[in-house]
Amino acid sequence: MKPRISVLTLGVDDLARAVAFYRDGLGWPTRGIVGSAEQHSAAAFFALQPGIQLALFPRASLALEVGVAEPPSGTSGCLLSHNVARREQVAEVMAQAAAAGARILRAPRDTAWGGHAGYFQDPDGHPWEVAWNPKWPVEDD
Amino acid sequence: MKPRISVLTLGVDDLARAVAFYRDGLGWPTRGIVGSAEQHSAAAFFALQPGIQLALFPRASLALEVGVAEPPSGTSGCLLSHNVARREQVAEVMAQAAAAGARILRAPRDTAWGGHAGYFQDPDGHPWEVAWNPKWPVEDD
User: If you placed Cys at A40, which of A15, A57, A61, A83 could pair as Cys (CB 3.0 to 4.6 Å)?
Assistant: First the structure.
């Protein structure tokens, strides 16, 4: 199996709310909600870097399709990290997330590994780390 | 905020077991466990496609660092999808995962959206979809 992830799907409690957060709050392009709520196929997709997409999918539909128990709302066993090119961009992105309605988990601070990072939580509890890592070059936006 | 994910971190109950699953079972290169268990910094990293890594991190350390509640072990609010180039590769990858100790959630079957997919669960309950999508070209391994 090659080391590859093609889609990361996040279970959400309210698909429209989640789409608004990522599309309007964070500014991520999307075609919006596709599929059918009645058929448990309603979802929204966001292109990330080439070859990988983020998908938002109702938690109940996800549990049904995959066959795993839903965790309690607001908890998450996955952390999503978003690296930025310059140290000051951490605070900029965190501010944008906060304005979009994210809950700030940890304000940006210097890290033990020589970088600078903060954490926020999307409306469904999925945590994001926003990080500058001097050893991880990122193309400046 | 640009649509970008740099690292996907999965919370695990047993870091060595998780590393063995991905490294030995699925064949994914890694430097193995780095950092310090005592300092809650022990983790393992796997390079996926360029610009994105998978990280394995003890659940308790993750909850401590990020400040979110741990979900119960064996549940997950995130689905990871791995697309393959050819339809028959779905079964091949599923078989490899099963041999590695994955729990098979759903055997491969044709999907409503015109593809072919199955699901397995890693030792920590994180679900993977293995999918062939005729509309999603993937470089053949």
Answer: A61
